[in-house]
Amino acid sequence: SQQGEEDPQALSIQEGENATMNCSYKTSINNLQWYRQNSGRGLVHLILIRSNEREKHSGRLRVTLDTSKKSSSLLITASRAADTASYFCATLYSGGGADGLTFGKGTHLIIQP
Amino acid sequence: GAGVSQSPSNKVTEKGKDVELRCDPISGHTALYWYRQRLGQGLEFLIYFQGNSAPDKSGLPSDRFSAERTGESVSTLTIQRTQQEDSAVYLCASSLAPVTQYFGPGTRLLVL
Predict the structure, then answer these.
(1) Which of B71, B76, B92 is nearest to B3 (CA)?
(2) Which residue in A109, B51, B55, B56 has its CB near the most CB atoms, within 10 A?
(3) CB contact B45 to A (< 8 Å)
């Protein structure tokens, strides 16, 4: 089955630094989404980028999408301790319904105060 | 079938009425999630059940929304006094681990 794969699996940085996470996927998509999950909690939608978009911003988040490389990156600028969480990318298959949404294994981000 | 099922598939209701949405997760999946998806937007987390732990209700948008789950089986999402802004697709997902969540087909709710 199709699955987004994030790297790195874990990332630890100092507060104030920027954090970059990457995601790769296998087949064509309609859109790619990034989610955050704090330990023991549900997923929180962060940002959605469509297959015809290359870059999107939301507050301190910047997402890029390269459909030729089937990859996306999530940049969190000026990180804060509250950004500590796991970050997942999710892809929706082209032509698929909601049951085509699959999450990768995630990047566990730790922000050191 | 072995997948997540939801009912009804479509629901049209009048503003002010209560609605109840049902989710049957995959047997054995301990985690169950409810999401809302407005047209053209990403999933909005509503509530998360994990085993017998207290549910994570942090995503519920107002006190008109509530959900229950019986053990590790069926869950119902109830919206009281529906508003037009509640119109959306309500998706349920179940999983054994956060790696992959298996989504149901959703319930399309239209509040007139």
Answers:
(1) B92
(2) A109
(3) yes
The torsion angles phi and psi of B84, rounded to 5 degrees, stand at -60, -30
Residue of chain B nearest A34, judged by CA positions: B42
Report whether pLDDT(B86) > 80. Answer: yes
**Under a CB-based contact definition with an 8 Å cutoff, are residues B60 and B46 in contact?**
yes
Q: Per residue in A3-13, pLDDT tens?
A: 567 788 889 99
Average pLDDT (A36-43) is 70
pLDDT grade for A95, boundaries at 50, 70 and 90: very low
The tokens of A94 are what?
A: 């082209």
- The span from the CA of B58 to the CA of B48, in Å, is 9
Q: Measure the CA–CA gap between A60 and A83, rounded to whole angstroms.
A: 11
Distances in whole angstroms, Cα of residue B63 to Cα of each of A29, A34, B21, B46, B105: 36, 27, 16, 12, 25
Q: If you count residue pairs, one on A and one on B, with CB atoms under 8 Å apart, how many are there?
A: 67
Q: Is A61 on the interface with B (CB under 8 A)?
A: no
CB within 8 Å of A14: residues ≥ 6 apart: A79, A111, A112
Amino acid sitting at position B81: R
